[in-house]
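A further point concerns the way the authors explain their paired sequence and structure data. Showing the layout once, in full, would remove most of the difficulty. For illustration, here is how one protein appears when written out as sequence plus structure tokens:
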Amino acid sequence: MDVERVRNDFPILRRSFQGRPLVYLDSAATSQKPTAVVESEARFYAERNANVHRGVYALSVEATEAYEGARERVARFVHAHDPSEIVFVRGTTEALNVVATSLGQSVLRRGDHVATTVMEHHSNIVPWQMLRATRGIELDFVDIDAEGRLRRDDLDRVLALRPRVVTVSHASNVLGTVNPVREIADRAHAVGALVVVDAAQSAPHRPIDVEALGADLLAFSGHKMLGPMGIGVLWGRQDVLEKMPPAAGGGEMIREVHQDRVEYREPPARFEAGTPNVAGAVALATALDYLEHLGWDEIEAHERSLLEYSSRQARDRFGDRLRIYGPRDARDRQGIQAFAFQGVHPHDVATILDAEGVAVRAGHHCCQPLMERLEVPALTRSSPYIYNDTADIDRLYDGLEKVARVFA
């Protein structure tokens, strides 16, 4: 991959901080946006801005065509059978809340089990905990092994409880672990469970095929894959969406409203109450075009190369002083590296790196159950992307050498 050419498409990377060129290594939190995406969103507002679906005038028709065209583009990306399986939401968090709220109304009853994992983001834990409080469901967690992989024996234990829903991340935002979703889905379906997949951390890095994954519902966010903030996707099998009640009411999701009754529209409109983020959807389609133009194989190869280079740097420069969490084999993980520097709090590590112009994230990464499982208060996380190269990794480890000196 020609990283220098890619970097030229991202104006923010020309900025400097603390007198040093920016090294942005926090793409797991949000990616930077190429000029094409920024201009796509601005162009919608400048040239085609109107509310969608209801207007019969030409500008509204143009806006509607742009919005529905974005839906078709996303459908191709996830290999959906039909664009009507694509619901636009604000992001993964809203998508998972829609799923939990709707299934809580229609499928789950007091005492029913929902299975998840200890590595999940809070967005895939809290909505189910809310159902535990309001609907009396049971929430069960699959444990991990020493390298951060799901334990097959503990999955056996949880599936033996015959959960109604199994919800799992495709890839961990801390450990980088890529979970065997197809295997989990097949086993979950065998006990009658619906399978919900959080693809927030996988969709930016690899093509998504919902049928190959065996998912029933899947969510991801635009802002982690070059798109704008405030736009995300919930995909659902058509027969599953048709049985789900809406999670919010008003606006576009109704067919008829009377004083004594209401009739809802078919999916996806049923789940898109209110004015949608049309410009965000259009810009997300542009982001997908950009990534596809680079090539998913190229992206995966580049990120694996950076991961292997970073792992060597950690080992050669710091040995046991720097512990990286997650699978050791690069084939079993993504390029995220969450680490602990011996004797130094992660926030101190991130602060010193910031003084060197290197942006990383420190904290519990919205994964407090995982932090408790790992017996750490927090971790520092580096998450490179398509616009990073080995020079950026060198800057990271040069900064960590300063950490070592400061806290010697």
Notes: The two ends are 38 Å apart (CA to CA). The longest helix spans residues 296-318. The chain has two domains: 3-32+295-406, 38-292.
